């Protein structure tokens, strides 16, 4: 557990460093060219930095053990970070729209376009590689904060690609109106990214159930490992960051001793924790008279 905690903290710190470098590159590109589209790209990088700082806070909080005030742990802290990121993304999109509106009425001649594009390409490449890493790392650790950050960086990469295409068109055609027009498209893409992050994070805060694939794995494990029991019903699950809470009723023969029923529970808990990473299992034992004859039948 300690090595995971250290790794997650290092990745969160890495996101902050990446955000600072990318923000600096994109802001210099904007200063060199005067492009409102590059300004929108640089503004989104400011959001990247803020959300990377929020993700570091969330990771540190979520790693705290359960205490008397938070008896189920602090896993949901990451969802708050993800919601904050979504809100900031939407705010950035509104600021970009505002700047684009002014640019439509006050056309600007762009300068040093080639140099600005080179800086932007470098920054976009860095973001793209880091987003791929965060997707893989976040899914392995089931971290909403890292996955939300990866989606945001992916949106940033798409936006940057659009900005670069717009700059090429401005350079080739001389139509400066394409610069603010591309900034508007960037803002719309950012809005979509923000909505997706907020939607997924709110789902986590509302204790959504595990995916169909994970539930199928849980049912299979119970069916194979509950030898001696009759059936399992009232299976319920909920996700909270890295933790997956699993609850169900275990029906056993009325003549079975408490010790024997407890042994089945121990075996089930160990098997579920092995097959479902982060599983927290709660089992309610019932006599066979309570059997509902549906749910998970024991093989």
Put the structure in a nutshell:
Helices cover 69% and strands 10% of the residues.
| Element-level helix/strand string | HHHHHHHEEHEE
CATH class of the largest domain: Mainly Alpha
Q: How many DSSP E strands? A: 4
CATH topology of the largest domain: Alpha-lytic protease prodomain-like
The neighbouring-strand order within the major sheet is 3-2-1-4
Radius of gyration: 25 Å
Looking at CATH, the homologous superfamily of the largest domain is: Cation efflux protein transmembrane domain
Distance between the termini: 34 Å
Low-confidence segments: none
When the domains are counted, the total is: 2
Main structural class: alpha+beta
Q: Helical percent range? A: 55-70%
Domain Cation efflux protein cytoplasmic: 215-288
Membrane topology: Multi-pass membrane protein
Protein name: Cation diffusion facilitator family transporter
Domain Cation efflux protein transmembrane: 15-206
Give a written overview of the molecule.
It holds the Pfam family Cation_efflux. This is Cation diffusion facilitator family transporter. It is a multi-pass membrane protein. The chain has about 300 residues and is an alpha+beta fold. The chain has two domains: about 1-205, Alpha-lytic protease prodomain-like (Up-down Bundle), CATH 1.20.1510.10; about 210-295, Cation efflux protein, cytoplasmic domain (Alpha-Beta Plaits), CATH 3.30.70.1350. It has eight helices and four strands; from the N terminus they run αααααααββαββ. It has helices spanning about 1-35, 35-60, 75-105, 115-140, 145-175, 180-205, 210-225, 260-275, and strands at about 230-240, 245-250, 280-285, 295. The protein has a four-stranded mixed beta sheet with strand order 3-2-1-4, with helices on one face. Strand 1 and strand 2 form a beta hairpin. Helix 3 runs antiparallel to helix 6 (about 180-205), helix 5 (about 145-175) packs antiparallel against helix 6 and helix 7 (about 210-225) runs antiparallel to helix 8. The longest helix has about 30 residues, at about 1-35. The protein is elongated. The protein starts with a helix and ends with a strand. The model has no long low-confidence stretch (mean pLDDT about 80).
């Amino acid at each position: 557990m300690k090595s995971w905690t250290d790794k997650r903290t290092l990745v969160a710190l890495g996101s902050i460093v990446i955000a600072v470098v990318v923000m600096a590159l994109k802001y210099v590109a904007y200063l060199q060219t005067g492009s409102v589209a590059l300004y929108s790209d640089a503004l989104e990088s400011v959001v990247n930095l803020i959300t990377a700082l929020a993700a570091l806070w969330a990771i540190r909080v979520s790693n705290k053990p359960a205490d008397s005030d938070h008896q189920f742990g602090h896993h949901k802290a990451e969802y708050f970070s993800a919601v904050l990121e979504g809100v900031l993304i939407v705010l950035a999109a509104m600021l970009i729209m505002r700047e684009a509106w002014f640019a439509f009425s006050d056309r600007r001649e762009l300068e040093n376009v080639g140099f600005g594009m080179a800086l932007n390409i470098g920054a976009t490449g860095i973001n793209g590689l880091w987003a791929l890493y965060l997707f893989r790392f976040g899914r392995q650790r089931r971290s909403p904060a890292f996955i939300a950050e990866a989606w945001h960086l992916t949106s940033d990469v798409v936006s940057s690609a659009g900005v670069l295409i717009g700059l090429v068109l401005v350079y080739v055609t001389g139509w400066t109106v394409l610069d603010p027009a591309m900034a508007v498209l960037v803002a719309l893409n950012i809005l979509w990214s923000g909505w997706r992050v907020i939607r997924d994070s709110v789902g986590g805060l509302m204790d959504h159930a595990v995916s169909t694939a994970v539930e199928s794995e849980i049912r299979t494990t119970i069916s194979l490992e509950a030898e001696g029991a009759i059936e399992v019903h009232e299976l319920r699950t909920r996700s909270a960051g890295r933790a997956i809470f699993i609850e169900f009723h275990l029906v056993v023969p009325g003549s079975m001793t408490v010790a024997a029923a407890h042994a089945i529970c121990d075996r089930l808990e160990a098997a579920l924790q092995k097959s479902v990473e982060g599983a927290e299992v709660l089992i309610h034992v019932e006599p066979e008279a309570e059997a509902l004859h549906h749910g998970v039948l024991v093989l």
